[in-house]
Design a protein that fits this description.
Layout (H helix, E strand, L loop, with lengths): L3 E8 L17 H12 L1 E7 H8 L12 H7 L1 E5 L11 E4 L2 H9 L4 E5 L2 H9 L5 E7 L19 E7 L5 E6 L1
Parallel strand pairs: 1-5, 1-6, 2-3, 2-5, 3-4
Antiparallel strand pairs: 6-8, 7-8
GO molecular function: 5-amino-6-(5-phosphoribosylamino)uracil reductase activity
Protein name: Dihydrofolate reductase
InterPro entries: DHFR-like_dom_sf, RibDG_C, Riboflavin_Biosynth_HTPR
Length: 177
């Protein structure tokens, strides 16, 4: 069974909603290297429709992307959880209609399935107990407003499996439920 990994860029106060506090290269070259290592361990990228459409409108056009994110996203098998999306328009992409299909995807052979962004989908995955690991890139920023990784009423007991501090002040914490 494959692991479903929630990887989020998050502020010290727990906000995962993107803002001007985050950019893919903001954590420095060491954070980018950690991202590349994670991309190498995953062969599936899971997202919700809104995040998928935002990414589809941006990443394929990034021809001089030094981060490697564009190249990865253009080739990795993408899965979009959506009840309304008809034609993804970004290959290779498969549309999953519900969380039961996500559960079946986890049962297939393969490497990690990574979910990044997609706040609503992430909350649904947490509520359905489908998350096997959290990889949190914590940025030394407090924004004091925005959506959080764990919504109210979703208590979790997590076990820290690793931590890495980067020169930029970003900390990568890895937890398993």
């Amino acid at each position: 069974m494959r692991d479903l990994i929630v990887t989020q860029n998050i502020t010290v106060d727990g906000v995962i909603e993107a803002g001007d506090w985050f950019g893919p290269a903001d954590g420095g070259p060491e954070v980018l290297e950690a991202l590349r290592e994670q991309m190498a361990r995953a062969d599936a990228f899971l997202t919700g429709r809104v995040t998928f459409e935002q990414m589809r409108g941006f990443w394929p056009a990034q021809t001089d992307d030094p981060t490697g994110v564009s190249a990865y996203l253009n080739q990795v098998q993408k899965y979009v959880v959506s009840s309304t999306l008809q034609e993804p328009g970004w290959k290779p992409t498969t549309i999953l209609r519900n969380l039961d299909e996500v559960r079946r995807l986890k049962e297939n052979p393969g490497r990690d399935i990574v979910c990044t962004g997609s706040i609503d989908l992430t909350h649904q995955l947490i509520a359905a107990n489908l998350v096997d690991e959290y990889r949190l890139f914590i940025y030394p920023t407090v924004v004091a407003t925005g959506q959080r990784l764990f919504p109210d009423g979703s208590p979790q007991t997590l076990t820290l499996t690793s931590s890495t501090t980067f020169p930029s002040g970003v900390v990568l914490l890895t937890y398993r439920p």
